[in-house]
């Protein structure tokens, strides 16, 4: 999709299913994983003049500079930048997004020799995002994520009163693509599968109740594995979907909360990357980053969960 900008997703998936897209000269599925060294053949595709004009207009925008945006920098040194990413901003361009966080950072810092994302956050998730300023730092930090040496804790508000005894969610997850009969055909989704499912990826989520009422619960969620949509799917699978989640949530409740007159109102997903613990890529010292809740989430929290619902030690 990055190479065929402007081509409908359904057309791209049709090309894959029909065998026009090849990997190492063989047919593959849309969910096949690429390995380093694979040879991918993408057939030539004509795009409409309208799309071509749009691409040229975007190139002109790039020539003038990507739209700049001030990101809240939590920490910066010679090795890394930690920012508090706002919701609604993709971490990188692609799939209909022209500019993400990393492109805007590169445009804002034209003299920077190296800027690369260490990890990712969903577009609608706010919170701590790391960017490496050196290749050595990138490798070190990514190794920490891969080897589970980091501690990642999110704040999530869900529908209903979360059972305090339910602290560990250990459920395998499987990624799949919506088929051509659904409105979002080709979009990626994740589901819980049985332990004996050969496609299931081990996934562990720890949950702690921070505040709760009969209607809502604010949770501290720590992930021990970094699967796609892990928190969203694990919480929803227990019957407690994240408020505002447009893929796995309670769609009727989301609409009600997003109405202009809703009190309290919420127009985004209540999921925030709140705390990150890691080792510095140069010194090796352990340190912690914290990102306060964005104002719109803090306001909803205080309106939805009055002080009487807070536990004594919060």
Describe this protein's structure.
The chain is 23% helix and 25% strand. It contains seven helices and 15 strands. It has helices spanning 9-17, 49-64, 101-108, 135-146, 230-237, 251-258, 295-304; strands at residues 22-23, 26-27, 40-41, 72-76, 80-85, 116-117, 126-132, 151-159, 168-170, 173-177, 188-192, 204-212, 216-223, 271-279, 286-290. The termini are far apart.
What percent of residues adopt helix (DSSP H or I)? 10-25%
Number of domains: 2
CATH architecture classification name of the largest domain: 2-Layer Sandwich
CATH superfamily of the largest domain: Pseudouridine synthase
Enumerate the spans where pLDDT stays under 50 for 5 or more consecutive residues: 56-64
Largest sheet: 10 strands, mixed
Q: Quick check: average pLDDT?
A: 87
How many helices? 7
Q: SSE string, helix = H, strand = E?
A: HEEEHEEHEEHEEEEEEHHEEH
Secondary structure category: alpha+beta
The number of distinct β-strands equals: 15
Global geometry: globular
Whole-Å distance between the termini?
A: 45 Å
Give the amount of beta strand, in percent: 25-35%
Our Rg estimate from Cα atoms comes to 21 Å
- CATH domain class of the largest domain: Alpha Beta
How is the CATH topology of the largest domain named? Pseudouridine synthase
Core attributes:
314 residues, alpha+beta, Pseudouridine synthase, 2 domains, 15 strands, globular
């Amino acid at each position: 999709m990055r190479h065929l900008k402007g081509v409908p997703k359904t057309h791209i998936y049709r090309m894959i299913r029909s065998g026009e897209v090849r990997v190492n000269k063989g047919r593959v599925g849309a969910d096949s994983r690429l390995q380093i060294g694979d040879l991918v053949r993408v057939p030539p595709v004509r795009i409409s003049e309208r799309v071509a004009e749009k691409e040229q207009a975007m190139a002109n925008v790039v020539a003038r500079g990507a739209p700049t945006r001030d990101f809240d920098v939590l920490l910066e040194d010679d090795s890394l930048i930690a920012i508090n990413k706002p919701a609604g901003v993709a971490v990188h361009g692609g799939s209909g997004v022209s500019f993400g966080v990393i492109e805007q950072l590169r445009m804002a810092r034209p003299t920077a020799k190296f800027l690369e994302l260490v990890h990712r956050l969903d577009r609608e998730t706010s919170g701590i995002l790391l960017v490496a300023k050196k290749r050595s730092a990138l490798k070190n930090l990514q190794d920490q994520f891969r080897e589970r040496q980091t501690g990642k804790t999110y704040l999530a508000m869900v529908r209903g009163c979360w059972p305090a005894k339910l602290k560990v969610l250990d459920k395998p997850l499987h990624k799949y693509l919506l088929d051509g009969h659904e409105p979002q055909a080709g979009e990626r989704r994740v589901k819980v599968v049985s332990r004996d499912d050969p496609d299931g990826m081990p996934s562990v989520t720890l949950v702690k109740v921070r505040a709760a009422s009969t209607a809502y619960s604010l949770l501290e969620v720590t992930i021990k594995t970094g699967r796609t949509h892990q928190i969203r799917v694990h919480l929803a699978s227990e019957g407690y979907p994240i408020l505002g989640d447009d893929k796995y949530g309670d769609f009727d409740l989301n609409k009600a909360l997003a109405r202009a007159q809703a009190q309290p109102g919420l127009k985004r997903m209540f999921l925030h990357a709140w705390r990150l613990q890691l080792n510095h890529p140069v010194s090796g010292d352990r340190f912690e980053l914290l990102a306060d809740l964005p104002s719109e989430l803090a306001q909803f929290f205080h309106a939805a969960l009055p002080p009487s619902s807070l536990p004594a030690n919060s």
